[in-house]
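Sequence only, no structure available. Ideas?
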Amino acid sequence: MQINDVDLVPLLRGALEYETTARGLMPWRLPSWARGQSFDPAVGRVAGEPTGVRLDFHTAATSVVLLTHPTRRVSSDSAAPQAFYDVVLDGTLFARLPSPGEDVGTALRTDHATGKVTTANGTDARLRVPDLPAGEHHVQIWLPHNETTELIGLSADAEVRPSPTASRVHWLHHGSSISHGFDAAHPTGTWPAVAAAAAGVELTNLALSGQAMLDPFTARTIRSAEADVISVKLGINIVNEDTMRLRTFVPAVHGFLDTIREGRHANTPLLLVSPLHCGIQEATPGPLLFEELDAGPRYSALGDPSDVSQGRLNLQGVRSALRQIADQRMATDPHLHFLDGLELFGAADEAELPFRDRLHPGSEAHLRIGERFANVALAPGGPLNLQ
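Reply:
I predicted one. Tokens follow.
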């Protein structure tokens, strides 16, 4: 079979929209109308990074080749993080294929001193999956969570059929860079992917790195999306960027949840999750300062803890506010639930598995968070009420 013999659209999972480009197919995790309403251009950038997006099919093929065009964004003073394609065979990680680097795909390099962005265009990427064992198999190819991927074609030496999903629970999750997978080593190693695999559910990851800002367009996107259960992990980006005070945060959360509850998701199990432990922001408000030091990247919180009494937000205040919001709403919404993020990753966890940059958990922490979320939230009889 030749490249482009397989129709990729029916195989695509985890994207809320796709765009037909000159090269092929571009998956998006926010629809175009929502991206058009964003103030920060970073919203579109991170919505184009396909965390949780995969090709999902059944086949008896032994030879499978994927053709893509990656786009990576790098700084003038650092290399791009390594990106991978994860091949999952019958539910087990079968191969981890590195995204080709130099001279392949497009590199957008930003000079932090001047702000100038230079573009280097290379060839398309040809990724050959190691020979599959004989027989019929369920195959998933998870796209890199930390670079943009245009899908050009898929070839195989046997028929490729979309996997059925009707019998599986569809879980949609929204969160920040931690849920997006920043500092996770590979796409099935992000904590939502770990949780989805452990619970046997279909994942749509609507985490937007740095952009979980209670934007109305994100709430409307969730309101319209297909989902059997929904979780929203809120607060840390608001503190990171110091974008709200308690006065505006509380009604904004209510409005965000009100919008999700409109229409098709009026009675959908909905889990409100507060932030994980992050030592630099527990008592100290943002904004954050990022520094590239000899010892590695590091974030520091610049706010004054005394300002909390005037309504400025730290993580402790956010958790308290979210719990109060949940308690108030649960009195009339039996399908709303609350999960304290410290149950997923608390102070003792951060002490044991410290963050490389003081903000983002690493791969071991992602595994722990995902397993705990599956056991607490996605377990039968848990708050998302999986049966």
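The mean pLDDT is 93.
Hope that gets you unstuck.
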